[in-house]
Amino acid sequence: MTITQSDHKIAQLKKLYNEGKLIPFIGAGLSYPFNIPTWEGIIKKLLCLVPDKYQPSIEFDLDMHDYWSAVDNIKKYTNFSEFEIQEKVKDIIENMVKTEVPYEDHNYSDLGEMKFNTFLTTNYDDLLYQYLQGEKYHPIDLSIATVKSTELHNTERKKRIWHLHGSLSNTGSIVLSREGYEQVYSQEKYRNLFSTLLGNNTFLFLGFSFEDQYIKQLIKDYKSHFNNTHYIILTNPSPDRVLELKEECGLEVIPINVKDSTRVKEIRKLLQGLEAKGGTDFFFNTPTVVKQTKQLPLINNLPFKRNINFIGREVELKKIRDYFIEPDIGHKSFIVSGLGGMGKTQIAVEYSYRNIDNYRVVWWIHAENQNSILADIESLLIELKIPIKDEKNDSIVLKQLKRWMEQNNNWLLVFDNANSEEEIDNYLPNLFNGHVLITSRDSNWPGYNYPLTIDKLNREHSMDFLIRKTKVSSNECVHLDELANILNDIPLALDQAGAYIQQTGLTIKEYQDRFIKHRSILTSKGIPLDYEYTIATTWEISLNKVGSLLPVAINFINFCAFFSADNIPKKLFYNCLDSSSNKISFYIKDEFILDEILSLLKRYSIIEINGKRITMHRLVQGVIQDGLSKEEKRVTAEVCWDVISYNLSLYPDYEQLDSDLLNNSLTLVDNFESDLNFIPVILETLNIVGHHQYKKGAVREAHTIFERALKIGLGIYDGEDNRLVKEYISYAQVLSEIGKYNLSHDYLSKALECKDLNTGLKAQINCMLCTNLVALGSLDAANYYLTETLQLLESSNDLEDLKGINILDVVNNIAKQFKLNGDYKSAEKYYYQIIDFCRFAEHHVPQAKTTIASVYSSLCLMYIDLEETEKAIGYSQQAIAINEMFYPNKEHPDLARDYNNLGLAYLYSHKYDLAKKYFKRAYRIYKNIYENEINVDLVSVTNNLGMVSEAQKDLEVAKGYYETALGYLEMFNNPLHPAKAQCLFNLGAILSASGQVDKAIEMLKEVLKIDKYLYDEEHLEVAKDLGKMGELLILQGSIDEALSCLNESINIFEKKIGVNNIFASNALFNASLCNLNMRNIKVANKQFEEAISIRVNIIGLEDHVIQEYILAYELLLKKLGIDQEKFLNRLSNRFKKVY
């Protein structure tokens, strides 16, 4: 029996329990058997109180597990008081609770029978109290109780339950909101409780989920008291979650890997174990008193059944085992090397089965290429419930794998058929706690200990193997030595010969004669007399036999020879049988024939079938490929490409393309890249695979594939050949994504130079050039390409011209450009046209849904500009909902864009914590995707993090973000980039706040210069700049110049969108100060009152800035000796709450 980390933790808990130092801390999960609703369930019940139009906002909070925000929004949108919500929560719980639940179906009965004297709970119910046995106090509601410090010491050893978040028996005590939580935990009695109980005790948290806001916040707030190790029982936690709880909350996780139906039993087993007598032996693989039944690990994907004919290799297996159990080695990797066909894989399979009960995880990784390694690693991470980026060999996948390897033990990873040490090193951390077994033809692994080179079997084992495999009679055994000799004791050849003898009924002598005959044929063809000729000979014999029984099986195995040896999905071929036009249907008429082919090839050990996949030895693939004539290879290739192309056509939505099909597609490209006959289909395949990677967010992998496709195309076609247009566009698109806008521009320009382009392609390329130039900050040039795009679309009378381009994205980009130019009406018109079209066409146009999300995201930004933040939040949330469905791993540039935009909407709604949350989420995705490249999106979100830090008065942090963003922009080599203006504007505000007014003014002058160059003189960005400049000039004492800037700002706002926005309000307020200084009292009062009125309309009377306005205005009146008591009294009556 292997002892896990959990076993150690349970032993420690047992010790604490027996010493009376363990305190159960109980969460809502233990009450679920009584039908007590979860927080999510309660909020869903409360949703019916909320008007329909506001429900999406609360549903979004639920998706984010942000229950505090959900409660706040329910109060906001229903106008119910906190007490009214508390009453409704009480009613919901009391109406749903089941009073009679069998003892065996819950854990309160288990806890009640144990010798715990103190319990803490955040639950509102009194269910535990009903099951406590022995003397007990009535439960204490700590949120309302007055408790002396002496009462915290349970000297009478009675059982006591402390309710931390109130009780159903006192409705007003129920803690629901963030405000209620903070109010409760700020009380001295809570600090006293934790200080006393945690002095010498340890908490065992039961019934809490990882997403529980209350418990995570509680631990963080009282972290100074949580100085001991504490424990939490969690169901099916991922390693990522385990690490986060340990690092952020100081909790050790005891995992129970069960389904919901067995959770209660597993917790009961754990609790009963605390009272059980006896100990545990913690040495690796040491037997214990209790006999354990041998079982498979919780997670395994062994692709092969155990070989019942496995023989020999005992010395090799012992070396592997001895190495792995040797102590004090922090990097336990064992290399098994040898020529193909020597049985390296079989040794790894046998080791895995022999030692399977020593591991919790056994995972097989097909290591013949990077794509298959990545696919198997991602499958492991998915099985472990660790977030991944599908089919992306980047820092996220590697980081997650390495972290898991470092923090967990009792696992075995098998890298089968690895190419080199350098390749495998990418996937292994420096130190880890499990075992790695590697097989490879390469014997050069200088960085690894104990490389073991496998040679042929010894003669005795060869003969024993043939006896097992062939089941020959004893009188034939005299020929076994001779047969083993001519087969050179090579395991693969022995296996193939044994399968042939068993299936045909030949005698050993008859097979020997046949082998010698075929060897002569092969040597006459020039095959060298090394170990491979033995393999070739055995296969020649078997293939001839199969061909005589079912000739079409030979065609089929020829096809398989060009796909991925370790994983050829059977569905590749079965799918094609539905299409009579597919070339494979000439050979295989229906699934019954295919079934017969697979059965026959398996019987003769030419292939293995493991579930849904076919595997064959690479050496066999090589023998088959080398044996084909040029014409046979051409015909075979045509069928293979037809098979792949048909399967790819089944996935018009690139995201759904599975990794098996992707790997086989790339294997086919590798095998035929040099064949000029297949260049068009190779380019098309690479284009599809590249878009799959791009859509999944694996931008760097997409870049590599598109670059490869373009390089192949340019090696065959002239640079202006229109067969290269798709390659130019795809490569340019991914270059833009990683911030290489100038290079992208060059390739788009080359695409425009291609011959015979139709109108649709010209429109698409011009639109992409427009978008690139916007990112580079060249708005005049961008407008030129916008005009070109519009003219091309208007001139097209032929819908055929628009086929093959994403017209929806083109129109969306046009709308974005109108928005940038300040033409919001035209932008809005285009946006809503796209939405209408997409809703009409979403069942026919694959990209319609994601285009709608893109439009929603654009509308969010437009409504932020127009100060309609509620609309902005709504559209952004809709965009996120769509894209989270399309990108479930939440690692895609589109989602980062949406999170960033939602953060902006929250920022301008003054919900700073939410804003920061979404900015950080976007920043993390961009950093992961772009790695060391700088993209304009990364600049934007860095600047936004600065803005929210500034809004929260954390000016030093804000300054750091702005300077970082400006540093990123230096790499763009464009002194007039629009993002630079934004960063300088914000940095100027920080400088002015720290008293560096002159420096800030110089910065704002540069901002004005950039914005007036990029936009027209009356653009909203210019209005904002002028407003800020006026404010700084007031601080400098330049009142006349300040008023000029402020009046110009106000005029632009009035002309463009009106003054009902924060920026115009600020300009009006500062203008009122200027006019007051100039004794233009009537004008000043009018502007001042209008400024306050605007802020009240947008934010409300609670806006603290309004109070700052009033104080500044009154102080200036007093300083200037101006009596405006009547005006101020009228203002006081109008805005009573503020005054």
From TrEMBL:
GO terms for molecular function: ADP binding. Keywords: TPR repeat. The keyword Cytoplasm does not apply. Residues 318-468 form the NB-ARC domain. InterPro entries: DHS-like_NAD/FAD-binding_dom (IPR029035), DUF7779 (IPR056681), NB-ARC (IPR002182), P-loop_NTPase (IPR027417), TPR-like_helical_dom_sf (IPR011990), TPR_rpt (IPR019734). Residues 551-632 form the DUF7779 domain. TPR repeats lie at residues 896-929, 981-1014. Signal peptide: none annotated. This is Tetratricopeptide repeat protein.
